[in-house]
Specification:
Layout lengths: L1 H5 L1 H18 L1 H4 L31 H37 L1 H16 L2 H12 L3 H27 L3 H8 L4 H9 L4 H24 L11 H8 L8 H28 L1 H5 L1
Helix pairs in contact: 2-4, 2-12, 4-5, 4-7, 4-10, 4-12, 5-7, 6-7, 7-10, 8-9, 10-11, 10-12, 11-12
Length: 273
């Protein structure tokens, strides 16, 4: 922990991410205006004291919409990573420990999902499920669990043949007890590092689907949707798309800095390689 705080970049990433989490948790403390309130007399006004991030084509306060959009985007990313990471890790643990046909079947399914770019697979899934933020999140969960399953499976395959695992089996420990009490605690570091980095990727992927019209629907103030709505006014109202894009940039940067620092501290061998 001391080594983590000595690294300026890791600490900066943690503080940036913490700030976004606080804003997302208590958006009403930062955004005093209703993000859905329309004011025809304040259309496309530039940033000023009354509207720090300006207004959109309907006179809505962009700052309030960005604050609430941060809540939606970050919350969606955390839910996607948490659900897909948990499901994939559990499946990978079982497949890697028990092997056999279950392992073979899961890994072949994982190969199919991993073979295609994530955005293309997500677009295909949303096309089947229908556009919307919930379906976009579900699509990303479906295409991401194989990555965690393969990572966890590889970790378990390496750990289950080590002396401590053999000793636990020799004294009569049950398989599930060995798996979750002995092997899992030695496999969580790379999974945690990947999950931290994937939060930023999930923010971008969700925003990309919204940008393409497959994610959040108007008037939901999701960051990707805000960028999409503002691109029509990019030359005359630069603030409309710029500020949501900057918040996404800060979120992704924070996750990358934090993930890289966690890797350096928790897994120095992997960092060196």
């Amino acid at each position: 922990m001391k080594r983590f705080f000595q690294g300026g970049l890791g600490l900066a990433g943690a503080l940036l991410l913490l700030a976004l989490v606080v804003i997302s948790t208590f958006p009403h403390l930062f955004a005093r205006r209703d993000p859905y309130a329309i004011n025809a007399d304040a259309r496309l006004r530039p940033p000023a004291a009354a509207h720090p991030f300006g207004t959109d084509e309907l006179g809505r306060d962009v700052f309030s919409r960005v604050v609430w959009g941060t809540r939606i985007s970050l919350g969606s990313a955390l839910l996607v990573v948490g659900a897909s990471g948990t499901a994939g890790t559990l499946l990978g643990l079982v497949a890697g420990y028990f092997g056999g046909r279950l392992d073979e079947a899961l890994m072949r399914v994982a190969d199919v999902f991993i073979a295609f770019p994530a955005l293309i697979m997500a677009m295909a899934m949303v096309a089947l499920l229908g556009p919307g933020l919930t379906n976009a999140m579900l699509a990303i969960m479906i295409i991401w669990w194989p990555q965690y399953a393969r990572l966890a499976r590889g970790q378990v395959a390496a750990e289950k043949v080590k002396p401590y695992s053999e000793a636990a089996r020799a004294v009569g420990r049950r398989d599930l007890g060995i798996l979750f009490r002995h092997i899992l605690p030695n496999c969580w570091v790379p999974i945690l590092i990947k999950a931290t980095l994937d939060i930023g990727v999930a923010i971008l992927l969700t925003a990309s689907l919204s940008f393409l019209g497959l994610g959040a629907r108007p008037p939901t103030p999701e960051l990707g949707a805000l960028v999409t709505q503002g691109r029509e006014h990019l030359l005359s109202a630069w603030w409309y798309s710029t500020f949501p894009g900057l918040v996404m940039f800060v979120g992704v940067l924070a996750c990358n800095l934090l993930g890289d620092s966690l890797r350096d501290v928790l897994d120095p061998v992997l960092s060196t390689n």
